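Quick one:
INPUT:
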């Protein structure tokens, strides 16, 4: 309130009081004129007293108004309580008794390491001393226990299976180096090790010692002999540089199946500028190095690609460059600022016009799921989550209303096959276990990767250059989500009038693996009607090649010198269904066309009517149980136990429905294709075997001629699967031809792949009919709507308000940046 609200007459004029008052000089002048100074002094005194009184009154009104506003705000705030917390239902620390699927704890990892260091025959060095010609621990993780023993413990109360660790050790100090895997037992206090079949040393995953050694050698030799070529061609240099730096940022393993050299280990190294982000700035300088030896000093340059030509050595390149017998490349070094087309700084047409926050979810009743260690319960569901360092996310022992449906649901591998004229992309057939997929899942960001109300699960990994476990705080996020789509609904406006419906509210377990340039989002989604959904979405940066005319067959020209290369993303999952136990049948329900006689319904003679029928077909053997999708022959794929039928005599089954169908176009048996023979089928069903635990391996990028894990052999022995423990292997994929809108980063829209496990006559009715998330509305009187409505919310209050807990994510990462940029010390770029 201001003085402008009052004037001498007490009106609400907007003019200021000071504009109307008489000045003291004017009053004195009046007094002089009248000859009555005493009278006018009394007038002045009265005026001053009046002003003081009015000032006090106005100040009192201001204070009173402020008190009223504050009191009202306090009353409003008192009605809006903080949302309930869930401290009693979320316990993330490992339980005292570890479940069979719980990942290795920090203490277990350290105890296994100390046990192995004490084994004199292994001659192990510690992480600070690792080298290609030394023996050292590469990685380790939980060895999943035998299924039969685990089920006896879970279902029959027998002794728990022994906890064991699977350890990978590089034996580089041997005369003939090799990779050795061990099973270390028992945990937490190991006393023995069991050696598995040795693997060729040239098949080992990418390692820090060899990559660092190779890049160091490349830097020194290229700077000495071809530094001028780099500066004149690309405006930059290798090594110690303040600006315009060049670096070898990407690697393409040259499979022996492609090189024709079965005993060799070779890799293409890509030269790129160091900018945000280098993969959109391709250069035509590639080096093929021979890394077959376990001695870094013996690494050699095998070939060099420059100016769309191949050279046998740096000397050949520089000689051709100086004589002008090669077309010289001229690409200016990119200006590395916020407007660079490959950067992810905000730019372009900015929206919204005002900084308005997007909608967010909150939990008015607190969290409706519980977590103990890695065991999660939600709306009838319960299951265990773990992270395999090598192959990524895994869910075990999935039950609904305490009935097991799935024993294991797990990612097996990711493969991306590129095509190009350039040798870097031509041979870029990546199989990502080589990069340890699980260790690439890290640093989820609240409010961007996951909703702010998520719960985060950590993971610990063993990496070659760190003595302590590499800890990832936010490897998974778990959150309940309103999809915005009705799970069911119906409105009946005639006869029996009613409305009933409910939103599809789900629990999601998410992880995101960043494998160099691409980011893969994996969601395991649990619906209230007994359905499980697996979803994969790709985002991140595409790989590109420097455009020459021959590259036009493999992608569009997206910038002056940039081609976006066609590639095929493939994802493989293991789905070990145990529907009412292990003895299951696999049945296809084919949808077949048919014609029936229509004479009695048509005025025409001898007419036929075309429609479809279903034909149930039990699939009895592994070769028969492979699916290469044929749109001419649509079918349902179902799994059931023949001893469990519904009241109407049909099998209580689960249906496998996949929405990620794609065809592998590379000719079978050629190049790198044998290493991903699982990609030949959209679905394959095999008999469960302990020795067929995984469909791939971390050696797969090298082993195409003799795959360490040959998935095709799972099928070729053609065992009978009827009434056996069955495993469904599911492949999803998508072909990607990059386009302009993939700059700077590929959006997820339209790239989601998924498959579902859907109840199919498993329940007598939709089990979500029991959910309190539904709403039913019906007239109070069947005769007249004037009597109002009966609205059934099942105890939920639509008026309930609460304030969600304020996210502290930004403050937390400000205090601990390593919790976001938690790059391990041995990270290698591939």
């Amino acid at each position: 309130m201001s003085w402008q609200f009052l004037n001498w007459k007490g009106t609400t004029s907007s003019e200021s009081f000071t504009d109307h008052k008489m000045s003291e000089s004017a009053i004195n002048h009046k007094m002089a004129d009248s000859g009555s100074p005493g009278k006018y002094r009394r007038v002045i005194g009265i005026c001053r007293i009046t002003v003081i009184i009015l000032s006090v009154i106005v100040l009192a009104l201001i204070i009173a108004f402020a008190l009223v506003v504050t009191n009202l705000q306090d009353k409003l705030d008192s009605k809006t309580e903080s949302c309930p917390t869930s401290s009693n239902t979320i316990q993330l620390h490992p339980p005292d008794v570890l479940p069979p699927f719980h990942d290795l704890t920090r203490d277990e990892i350290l105890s296994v390491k100390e046990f192995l260091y004490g084994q004199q025959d292994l001659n192990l060095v510690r992480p600070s001393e690792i080298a290609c010609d030394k023996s050292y621990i590469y990685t380790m993780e939980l060895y999943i226990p035998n299924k039969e023993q685990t089920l006896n413990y879970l279902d029959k109360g027998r002794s728990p299976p022994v906890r064991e660790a699977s350890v990978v050790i590089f034996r580089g100090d041997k005369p003939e180096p090799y990779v050795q895997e061990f099973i270390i037992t028992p945990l937490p206090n190991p006393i023995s090790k069991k050696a598995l079949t040795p693997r060729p040393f040239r098949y080992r995953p990418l390692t820090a010692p060899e990559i660092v050694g190779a890049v160091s050698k490349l830097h020194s030799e290229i700077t000495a002999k071809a530094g001028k070529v780099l500066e004149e061609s690309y405006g930059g240099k290798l090594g110690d540089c303040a600006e315009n730096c060049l670096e070898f940022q990407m690697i393409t393993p040259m499979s022996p199946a492609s090189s024709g050299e079965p005993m060799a280990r070779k890799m293409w190294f890509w030269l790129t500028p160091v900018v945000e982000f280098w993969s959109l700035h391709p250069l035509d300088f590639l080096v093929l190095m021979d890394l077959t030896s376990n001695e870094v000093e013996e690494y050699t340059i095998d070939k060099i690609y420059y100016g769309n030509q191949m050279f046998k050595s740096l000397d050949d390149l520089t000689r051709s460059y100086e004589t002008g017998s090669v077309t010289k490349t001229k690409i200016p070094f990119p200006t590395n600022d916020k407007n660079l087309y490959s950067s992810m700084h905000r730019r372009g047409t900015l929206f919204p016009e005002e900084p308005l926050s997007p909608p967010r979810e909150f939990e008015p009743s607190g969290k409706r799921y519980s977590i103990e260690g890695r065991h999660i319960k939600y709306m009838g569901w319960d299951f265990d989550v773990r992270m395999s360092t090598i192959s990524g996310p895994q869910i075990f022992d999935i039950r609904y209303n305490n009935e097991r449906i799935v024993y294991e649901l797990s990612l097996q591998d990711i493969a991306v096959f590129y095509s190009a004229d350039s040798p870097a992309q031509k041979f870029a057939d990546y199989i990502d276990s080589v990069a340890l997929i699980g260790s690439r899942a890290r640093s989820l960001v609240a409010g961007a990767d996951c909703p702010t109300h998520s719960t985060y699960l950590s993971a610990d990994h063993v990496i070659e250059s760190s003595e302590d476990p590499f800890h990832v705080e936010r490897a998974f996020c778990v959150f309940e989500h309103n999809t915005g789509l009705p799970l069911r609904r119906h409105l009946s406006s005639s006869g029996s009038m009613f409305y009933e419906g409910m939103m599809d509210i789900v629990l999601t377990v998410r992880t995101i693996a960043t494998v160099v340039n691409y980011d893969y989002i994996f969601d395991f989604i649990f619906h209230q009607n007994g359905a499980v959904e697996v979803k994969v979405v790709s985002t991140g940066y595409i790989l590109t090649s420097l455009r020459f005319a021959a590259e036009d067959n493999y992608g569009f020209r997206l910038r002056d010198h940039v081609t976006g290369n066609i590639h095929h993303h493939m994802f493989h999952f293991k789905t070990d269904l145990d529907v009412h136990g292990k003895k299951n049948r696999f049945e296809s329900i084919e949808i077949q066309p048919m014609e029936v006689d229509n004479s009695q319904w048509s005025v025409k003679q001898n007419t036929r009517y075309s429609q479809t029928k279903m034909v149930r077909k039990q699939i009895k053997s592994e070769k028969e149980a492979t699916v290469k999708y044929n749109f001419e022959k649509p079918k349902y794929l179902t799994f059931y136990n023949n001893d469990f039928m519904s009241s109407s005599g049909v099998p209580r089954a689960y249906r496998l429905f996949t929405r990620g169908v794609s065809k592998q176009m590379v000719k079978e048996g050629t190049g790198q294709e044998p290493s991903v023979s699982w990609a030949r089928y959209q679905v394959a069903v095999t008999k469960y075997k302990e020795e067929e635990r995984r469909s791939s391996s971390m050696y797969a990028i090298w082993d195409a001629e003799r795959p360490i894990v040959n998935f095709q052999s799972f099928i070729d022995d053609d065992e009978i699967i009827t009434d056996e423990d069955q495993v469904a292997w599911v492949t999803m994929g998508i072909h990607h031809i990059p386009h302009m809108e993939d700059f700077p980063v590929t959006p997820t829209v339209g790239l989601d792949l998924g498959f579902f496990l859907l109840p199919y006559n498993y329940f007598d009715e939709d089990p979500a009919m029991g959910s309190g998330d539904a709403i039913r509305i019906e007239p109070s009187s069947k005769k007249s709507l004037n009597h109002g409505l009966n609205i059934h919310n099942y105890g939920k209050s639509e008026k309930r308000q609460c304030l969600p807990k304020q996210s502290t994510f930004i403050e937390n990462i400000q205090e601990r940046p390593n919790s976001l940029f938690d790059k391990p010390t041995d990270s290698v770029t591939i």
